[in-house]
Amino acid sequence: MPPCDFTPERYQSLAYNRVLEIHKQHLSSALEVYFPKPLLLHQGHMQWLFDYEGNRYLDFFSGIVTVSVGHCHPKVNAAAQKQLGRLWHTSSFFFHAPIHEYAEKLAALLPEPLKVIFLVNSGSEANDLAMKMARAHSNNTDIISFRGAYHGSSPSTLGLTNIGHLKLELASGIGCQSTMCPDVFRGPWGGNRCRDSPVQTIRKCGCAPGPAGRGGGCTVEDCCQAKAQYIEQFKDTLITSVAKSIAGFFAEPIQGVNGIVQYPKGFLKEAFELVREKGGVCIVDEVQTGFGRLGSHFWGFQTHGVLPDIVTMAKGIGNGFPMAAVVTTPEIAESFSKRLFHFNTFGGSPMACAIGSSVLEVIKEENLQENSQEVGTYMLLQFAKLRDEFEIIGDVRGKGFMIGIEMVKDKMSRQPLPCEEVNEIHEDCRHMGLLVGRGGIFSQTFRIAPSMCITKRDVDFAVEVFRSALTQHMERRAK
């Protein structure tokens, strides 16, 4: 394990067994936890977490893709402590300088005309607000999202979320329609030249190879056969499942909860054109992909060459502090204000904005977007070597510090590795000091999304741990 110069405080709180009792008695069983013996965490420092016994873990999931610049980053801590002693809360009925300072900084990072900012508290709340905006502006109801999408769990956003075990059996999300996810690994079409990634699928495709010296990929986006097939499915949804005019279309630049799923190059650009022809607005959910995590660009939508009408963001925006935002155009903001009185008790609080400003400063000062590009690409290529080594790794994909490792029974069938076996590998990684996430419809994909401060040395450790966990699993299988 790489060295760490931080020493955690001694744990002096509830005994572990007492924590288990309280959890069972007073916390909902709907709150899913990892591992048969759940981790009781005590302290964090940058990319490291410490449990109640003082054990150290390399955190490669960052609180569900949330701790963007590192646990308890000194500069973010200092900003929080300073604001804590000055002013916590005012509500949106009064001015305070931190919200104006933050709004100016955030707006400067977005292209024209995305310059009007609404500050809220969570990704679900941001997407819920974006739904209202789309409907108020378009005067239409229907909103489309991908199967496998996760856009929140409020009564409205559950309609956009299309992952079976997260859906509610009662009516929710009225006016939402799903469309096929253009997944080039698991979907009906796709191959080894479709993705905007240094690592492609092992599926073959008939697309034209890219120019020499540019690492493959289609010479132009229009040559991608998988993209063309998925666009036909999208057109079919527009023809059969929604009204003649629609409110909008939601998309994550890369699907997060579904296991870091990437679309064919050029798909979103063409889909946006079709949506706008139907009178809808295009909403990009940057809750997991934003703030430099993908490396090549600050925002995920920029990797697709598109300009959305509304952008939602949360998680990494506050490095773990509850904070989120919706950014849109003056035109859409004006339509919304004419249709609805809007306020938010906690959104844009002095505390949130002071922390948000410090996060933006750290990303810039410490070159974390550049680190995501360099170290993230290195990590992706290292994990791709494991795909070549182990038959049960079907796909390695992603960009920057957002990587998916999809586990399969075998590469030919691409059938998901049984959840019990994935659980064993997950548990083995934990025992060796590595924490990773899970995703996918069948929980078959490991999600790798560390804080953007990690190093190549951290990557080397993580890859070796994962290799050891896979080797142990294959040995168990052989017995």
Structural overview:
The protein has a seven-stranded mixed sheet with strand order 4-10-9-8-7-5-6, sandwiched between helices. Strands 1-2-3-13 form a four-stranded mixed sheet. The protein has a four-stranded antiparallel sheet with strand order 11-12-15-14, with helices on one face. Helix content is 34%, strand content 14%. The longest helix has 23 residues, at 456-478. The protein contains twelve helices and 15 strands. It has helices spanning 16-26, 62-65, 74-84, 97-107, 123-138, 225-240, 267-277, 330-339, 350-365, 368-389, 419-431, 456-478, and strands spanning 41-45, 48-51, 56-59, 116-120, 143-146, 176-179, 248-251, 281-285, 310-313, 324-328, 393-399, 402-407, 434-435, 437-439, 445-448. It is globular, with a radius of gyration of 22 Å. Strand 7, helix 7 and strand 8 form a beta-alpha-beta unit. It is of the alpha/beta class.
The end-to-end distance, rounded to whole angstroms, is 29 Å
Averaged pLDDT: 95
Poorly predicted ranges: 212-220
- Helical proportion, percent range: 25-40%
Strand order in space, largest sheet: 4-10-9-8-7-5-6
Structural class comes to: alpha/beta
Shape: globular
User: Would you report the number of β strands?
Assistant: 15
Largest sheet: 7 strands, mixed
Strand content: 5-15%
Radius of gyration: 22 Å
Order of helices and strands: HEEEHHHEHEEHEHEEEHHHEEHEEEH
List keywords for this structure.
alpha/beta, 479 residues, seven-stranded mixed sheet, single chain, globular, four-stranded mixed sheet, 14% strand
